[in-house]
Amino acid sequence: MERGLFLVLPLFLGFLQQGRGGPLEVEPRERVVVVAVGGSMQLTCRMDCAGPRAASVQWRGLDTSLGAVQSGAGSSVLSVRNASLSTAGTRVCVGSCGNLTFQQTVKLLVFAFPDQLTVSPVALVAGLDQEVACTAHNVTPADPDALSLSLLLGDRELEGVQALGRDEEEEPQEGEDMLFRVTERWLLPPLGTPAPSALHCQATMRLPGLQLSHRQPIPVLHLTSREPPVMTSLEATLDQGSTHSPPSPGKPGNSSTGPCLPEIHRSPVPGGLELLCEAACGPGVAVRWTQAPGDLEAYERREAGAQAWLSVLWAACNPEGWFQCRLDPGGQMASLYVVPEICFPLTSEALWTGSLVLGLLFLVFLTYRLWKCCWARQLLGSSAPPGPN
After folding, report:
1. CB of 102 within 8 A of CB of 24?
2. How far apart are CA 109 and CA 33, in angstroms?
3. What is the pLDDT of residues 59-112, one digit of tens each?
4. H/E element holding 162?
5. Residues 17-20: contacts with CB within 8 Å, 24+ apart?
6. pLDDT band for position 195 (50/70/90)?
7. Pairing relationship of beta strands 180-188 and 147-153 according to DSSP bridges
8. CA 78, CA 93: separation in Å to the nearest integer?
9. What mean pLDDT comes out for the span 298-306?
């Protein structure tokens, strides 16, 4: 039936006299009107007729989700309350004066762009090549023409960055609206000298007649000394004010007012460190390690639902850097920056050198034993009494 309406309505409108520039007026005047998910707005259509006869004005749509309409003499008001994605579409206002009929169309566009930015890692380290990701949560539309993500130094885009790709994933929702999680990744060059105190991730939504932006700071750590070796860490549970999506009804959370967030705890163990990522969010959630210095597969890991362990061994000479874990569903992350305290190189060159030293020591010991044995025999021979003639 809906397909039939799509076919019939254009034929019906074709018989109407076009009202563009005519006496039929619509406010707001834009042909494309945008409204946020959960927002409200009104479209007012008016027309005056010459003479005593009042104009007949009425809003029409292609489905039953037209909205609340109040019509009177010469005007009709279309009210949209608590807009959802299904509210989007074309609305048609039809007005008539006697035998003359006019029409105006308005396209209603519904968007979602909450201030819910997250960054990973939550801080950078000056002087290192690093990968950084910026994610906008619960947004729509998600295409690059409408939503863009960028890295800023001050008020300008950071130069010298290498784009690594863009991911668009559906965000888990309780309702019918399909919202998205959009992530952009970059490889950063060393941040120069002196390094800035912070960069910013910026998300920008551009729609007809509307441009909105949100920013999330990314602090830059300055490690000024490496002697003596120390552990430097920045534990991050992404508790960054209003940058997270609020918990949906029925979804678990580790506080009554905030979203469910993972946390990283560290415990010293003989020869290294054990990291524990956990989320006290109730049943139905899981955490996993997603990033570690060097190769994540080189670390011993265990995962069990809302807890995940990772072992850092000083003897393995793991490079310094960020450890990161992720909560599913939701995508919230936690990060920890670690500088190893002790490192015992176990490279093939070191093993070869050690073997050579041990071989030389064994050769010296063997030579000494042979010399001592020969010397003892020589003494015994010289001190023996002469035999009979």
Report:
1. yes
2. 6
3. 886 554 666 888 888 889 999 899 999 889 889 999 988 888 899 999 999 999
4. strand 162-170
5. 17/100, 17/101, 17/102, 18/102, 18/103, 19/95, 19/102, 19/103, 19/104, 20/104
6. confident
7. unpaired
8. 10
9. 92
Q: Report whether pLDDT(243) > 50.
A: no
Distance CA 126, CA 130 (A): 9
Question: Is the peptide bond preceding residue 194 cis, with omega within 30 degrees of 0?
Answer: yes
Positive/negative CA dihedral, 98, 101, 102, 107 = positive
- CA distances for 71 relative to 76, 94, 95, 106, 245, angstroms: 4, 12, 11, 17, 39
- Location of structure tokens 């050769």: 363
Residue in the block written with tokens 């074309």: 90
The closest of 28, 31, 37 to 86, measured between CA atoms, is 37
* Confidence at 216, pLDDT banded by 50, 70, 90: very high
* DSSP symbol at 354: H
Q: What is the CA radius of gyration of the chain?
A: 36
Whole-angstrom Cα distance, residue 135 to residue 203?
Answer: 9
Q: For residues 70 and 89, give the distance between their C-alpha atoms in angstroms, rounded to a whole number.
A: 19
Q: How far from 63 is each of 1, 9, 58, 383, CA to CA, in Å?
A: 10, 11, 15, 124
Tens of pLDDT along 332-363?
888 888 876 655 554 445 555 666 767 777 78
